[in-house]
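Amino acid chain:
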Amino acid sequence: MNGPASSNRIRVAAVQFDPHLGDVAYNLAEIERRLTQAVAAGAALTVFPECAVAGYTVGSLDEARALAQPLEGNAIRAVARRCAALNTHCVVGALLAHDDQVYNAAVLIGPAGVIGVYHKAHLPYCGADRFIRRGDTGFQVFDTPVGRIGLLICYDLRFPEAARTLALRRAEIIALPTNWPAGAETAPDFMVRARAFENRVFVIACNRVGVERGARYIGRSCIAAPNGQHLADASPDAEEIIWADIELAQARAKRLVIAPGEFEMDFFGDRRPELYA
């Protein structure tokens, strides 16, 4: 968790697109093309959807294994080369193969290569998550030139302990690759705002669109500020990039002063962890 000091003001982006199941070459081309577009518009950190490299709605463990990429393999290397060429950071979702297991992963990549990997901890009975292994990486925070970044994936957002752990470890940004299907509308409606507000962090939630093996994905990627407000919202069905300019200092200020000396809240200082066990 050591690294350079965070800049204060940066532009972040979420790339909402329609990955093609099993077509790694197409998906990588789209990731590289849209990353280039995001950086051209000033993004220092760009987030892509869950399982963006190969798709999500697999029907068996064997199919998941066939689509899983090694961390040191050509797919992740291709994204790393583009990050190096553009001098930028991104978070990309992929099925990763590790020690004969398959994990639903988010990979944080910077100009010098892979910075960190997170394996999805909470698995719903849905898509690839029905067959793969639960993650055991824990909730790490990575210090980068564009902020202290924590990683979660989709369903993890439903568990407040995960985001709170990242916030207690001084995350300023939570990057959330996701595949919200129809029926998950409460996530963009409420959950992103709630996790951002209760932890006083920025949340970049990047969903996909399109239909994959009958499952319709609802888009609505969003970027939320520490006060719970949405800074940017995507449509429910279009491929698009959304941006927001964020001040990282806002995520470091956990004390909210509404009326000095009369109405103040310290979101972390007022905690009572001795009562929570």
Observations:
- Confidence is low (pLDDT under 50) at residues 1-6.
- The helical segments are 24-40, 61-67, 74-86, 160-168, 186-199, 249-252.
- The longest strand covers residues 89-98.
